[in-house]
Amino acid sequence: MIKESFKNLLIIAAFIGNHILFAQVVKYQTQDLPESSDFMVWVNDQKVFTTKAGGDYRGSYSFANFDFNGSVKVKVRAKHAIKWLEIMPSILNIKSKTIDDYTFEFTLDKPKKITILLNNDKRNALHLLTNSIEEKTVDPQDDNVLYYRGGEVYDIGVLDLKDNQTLYLEGGARLKGMVRIRDAKNVKILGRGIIDGTDNKSNGNGRFKDEPWRLIYMENSQNVQIQGITLYNSLKWTVHPYNVRNLQIDNINIVNWDYGSDGIDLSSCSDVKISNSFLRTNDDCIVVKAISFDEKMHYPNPRIQNPNIKNILVEGCTFWNMDYGNIFDIGFELRCEKISDLTFKDCDVLIQEGRGSVFTIHNSDNAVVENVLFDDIRVENADLASNSKLIDIAILFSIWSYDKFNDYEMIRKYRYNDSWDNLIPVLPGKEAFHASHRGHVKNITLRNIQVLDGKLPYSVFNGFDEDHIVDGVAIENMTVSGKKIKNKEDLKLYTKFTKNVTIE
Description:
- By secondary structure, this protein is mainly β.
- The chain has 2 domains: 7-130, Dex49a from penicillium minioluteum complex, domain 1; 149-503, Pectate Lyase C-like.
- Helix content is 4%, strand content 52%.
- It is built from 4 helices and 40 strands.
- The strands form 3 sheets. Strands 16-18-20-22-25-28-30-27-24-21-19 form an 11-stranded parallel β-barrel.
- A hairpin with a 2-residue loop joins strand 5 and strand 6.
- It is globular, with a radius of gyration of 23 Å.
- It starts with 6 loop residues before the first strand and ends with a strand.
- Residues 1-6, 11-22 and 416-420 have low confidence and may be disordered.
């Protein structure tokens, strides 16, 4: 039995206007997480536990999780007086009612991942990460179920999951450490609990698989499902599958703060679906790579390729990227023969803050990247970024390129210069060598892209040389503040070693 203080199922009738709204609400409290001092939240007049991510000199942000069916009234009280209020994604058209200088309320008719931006303060936002009430089918007595009950904190270190196992986290459960899936099939991670990386440590870099610098690591596995959980304060990459087939990630939340804390790094994976999730990261939100941290694949001589990448779908997700990285990134490390058939659709980009881009292909290695579709993507707050781009498609030699190790000392000289997205000069006398390790980008479509507000960032399509070009980028029905983009000038587009660009 879950303690009442950690999970409450409430059947509530609330008056809104002349209507009575009946709803079921499930709320949770996670032990030993800090309570937000910036926001208090009530659902149908029942207080919901609201916590924080971050907290260093850059500030922090707040979030709350709860489940409901039906319609609910949400009331929020802020620490600071309300001068301006945004509820995002704006496509939801949620209207709020001001109660006093510090308090407002609104109605949710169905669960959504919403963000409240108060007084345009992106360092002090509130994320309400709601879900439908869970239809739990996991049996705690099943020998293949690792069941963690709510209201407890578990120090798991590195927890390995095997064939046919299910890891279940009740709402209010908090696991500290990393979950690892290696050489396994038919594995599930389910529930409403939290995996917390706040105390994780790493003594080295990504080649050490036994260190919990990620929250979920997978390799050489198939038929993996991750659903419903929240991943909190990852040290670096949050979800990192390598060579995983048939991976489904649905309705998860990633709330990070540290620099380099990517959201989901799909490395050499195929047949992947990511849906209905919220990601706030301080590096790439969703990134597709072909990279392994095994020594034999990390260094040249002999050169060993990673598995090819195919059939990835990302849909119905909401993103906020902070100072580092990009929203959607293919690259930089693309050390395989082909990456194809990737689709990103029906997503909301709330903020791209830093020097990265919303739509990015960075091919710094030898792969052919082809047949990529971005469709029905809504971009908000375009003017909150610093030195960012809307679209950045490039074939380049960078500090992340495979052949960097041939001239590592010279490359070190360029790492911290004022370069464009880690683009470094081709080393003198090495032009033919670097060209022999460069790939191609072709058949890229951006369709029904809406930049809803803010000043339009610029875009770049940049091949490597005459033999390694960006070939075939179609811009279809892109609008900025409702006005259709008709040409390169409207898009603020720079091109080099590029052909067959169409804008219609």
